[in-house]
Amino acid sequence: MTLDELVDEYRRVGIGPRILGQVREVVRAVARGYDPAIYGGSASWDDGLDDLVQEFGLEVLVGQGQLDYAMLMATDHQHFRRLLARQVRYLLARRRRRTIVDNLIDRAHRMADAPPFRLLGHRSQWCYTLLGKEVTPGRVSEAAARTVAARLAEVPTIRAEPTLRAPAVFSEASLRTILAEVAAAAPCPVAAGDLDRVFSLLLTSWLPSFLKEAEATIASAPAEGLSAEDLAIVEEATVAILSGCPREDQQVLRLKLEGLSDEHIGVRLGLSRPTISKRKRQAMACLEESLAGLRPELRLPVLDQLGARLAALRGGRRDDN
Amino acid sequence: MTTTERSLPDWVEEANRCLRARPLLPPAGGSRRAPEVGDLCVAEPSDRGSADPAIVCVVEVDDDLATVQVALASPDTDLASDAHLLAPAGDTGLPFDLMISTDVTGRLWWLQVERRVGRLGATLAQWLRDACRGGPSAAPAGVRGMPVVGAQDARRGFEAGERRRLAALAADCERAVAGGLRALPLVVDPRLFTGLPRDASGAWAGRLAAVAGELTVAGRSFLPGRAVAAVVEAWDADSSRLDPDLWRAVQPCLERALAAAPAAAGPAVTFEPPRAGQPAWSDDALAETCGVLLEGGARAIRLLTLPSAWSGERLEAPAAAIARGGGRAVQLIRHNLEVNP
Q: Given Cys at both, which of A34, A74, A156, B209 links A39, Cβ 3.0 to 4.6 Å?
C-alpha cells in the first residue's frame, strides 16, 4: 500500500476499500490501548469497535475534515496512519470528556432547581437562569460561551483516578459558581446545550491528560484475543528486547516502529545516516533474536507492546503532527 | 481478505456523499504567485525530509528578502489556548477547523509556502496580525481558546512541541537572513556581459561600474567561471572610462571564479520563470553555478541580473525566481541592475 494509491482512491471515490481498511486497522490498534468500559461504553472492543470506526469515519474524517487534512499533509503511507491514529486518540479522549460533561449537566440540572437559580422549561428542554433576572429568548453564542469559560478557567478542579469513568471534576461550590457566572453573563436562559459547550471548554486542559493516561496504560493493556499465558510470553519478550537493547538503539527502534525513514530519524536525533544505520542494525539484531523463538501470531503483539513501551518511556509524543 | 466495494458499510456511502458535496483540496504544486497576508499555506521544509510539513498563516511579507513571517496553524482545536486564534472551516475555505498560534511564529522563504490552500477572512487576519505583534489579548476572547492555567496544564508540552515543529521548518531561513540581504550569496548573471554591441563602450562602462559597485558591498559573491572571459573583454572595450578602483572590486570575484573547480555532474537546473530568448552559454553557466550552490545547501541567493534576461514574470512576484534541480530548489532574489542598456 502506498500513499499515492490512497490519494488516488480519495480523489476518485472518497472513502473506498483501501482507506476503509487503513481506518479499521488504525482504529483497532489505537483502541486496544484504551479501557473499553471507560472509552467505549462496552465490556470489550469486540462489541464497540464497529461503532467506533463508524463514528470516526463520519464525525472525524468527514464531519471534521480530518481525512482531507491527512491527505493534504501526509508525506508517506506511515505518516498518513500516524495522522489517523492521532485523531482516533482525540476522538477517544472526547468520548471520555463527553461522559464527564453529561454527568456535570445532570448535576447542574438538579442544582438549577433551587435558589439562587430558577429552573425553566421541562424535561429535555430544561434551561435555567438566576432568580429575579430578566431574560430574553435566545441561545448563548459561541463567542460568549468562550468568553465566560475563559473567565472560569481558574475554578479549582478535583483530579481523579484514571479508572473512574465520570469523575466529579468540580465540587458543589465550584459547580454553583460556574452556573451562576454563566447565567449572569447570558442575556437569555441557559440551556443544557449551552452548559455543554462551557463544560467542554472548561475540560480543555483535561483532554491531553486523557491522552496521556491512555498512553501510560497502553503498556499494560492486554492485546485482544490472547490467553493469559500468551500475554505473559509477549510481556517476557518485550522486557527481554528492552533490556537487551542499549538506550541509544532504543531511540532508533522507536522511530523505526513509528515508520520513519533512516533519513528522518537522523534529522530527528541529530545523527548521521551511517550512525542511524549502524544503530538500526544493532536494534534489529536484538529484535530478531527475541522474535525468532516466538509463534508468528505473537510477534505483532510484541511489536505493538514494544512501540507503546518505548513511547511511554520517552514520555509520550504529542509533538509529531 | 481484501475488502471489496460490495462489502463497504452503509455509512461509507453517506460519508462519500458529504465528501463529494464539497470541493477537493488543491493537489500538490506551487501556486506561482507571491504570498499575501492571510494566506494559509502548507509550509514545506527547505530540505525534503528534514521536517514534517505544517499549515501556516502568512502574517507579514518581505518583498526584499522574499520571505514571509508566519504563524503556525494546527487542526488540534481541542487543545487551543488563549494564545490561539480559532479559525472555523467556513472562514478559511478549508474543510477543517484550525487554531493559529499567535506566539509560535517564524520566518520562511517564499519557496516554502508556494502551496496555498486557503485564506483567512479579513477580520481574523487583522486580529492575527495584531495578536502576533501586541500579544494574544489584542484579539477578542471569543475567538481564542482556553487559558493555560498552572504548571500542571498538560498543554504546555503540546505547545513546546509546536515550537519545535515550526523551528525545524524556519531554521534555514532564519539563519540565512539573520545578517540581512547583503549576507546572502550574490551571484552575477552572465547575461550582464552579453547583448551589448562591442562598440557601445559607454554602456559597457556603466554596466561594469554598477556590477563592481554591488560586488564592493556584497558578502560572498559568485561569478560563473565561463563568464570571466566576457567580463575581461567588456572591460577591455573601454577601460579608459573606468575607475581602476572598480577593477580592484571585480578582480577577487574573477579570481575566485577561475580558481573554482568546474561544476562536475551537478543537477540539471531549470528556471522559473524560464530565461528569455534562445538558450545561450550564459544560461548554462548560470545554471551550473546555481547547481553548485544548490548542492552546497544554499536555499536563497541574490542574483544580480537584468529584467530582459527573463521571459515573463512569476505572477505578482517580481523579486523572486526559482532554480530547481535534483529534487531541490533555490530561491533567486533578483536584483535588477539599474543601468541603461
A: A34
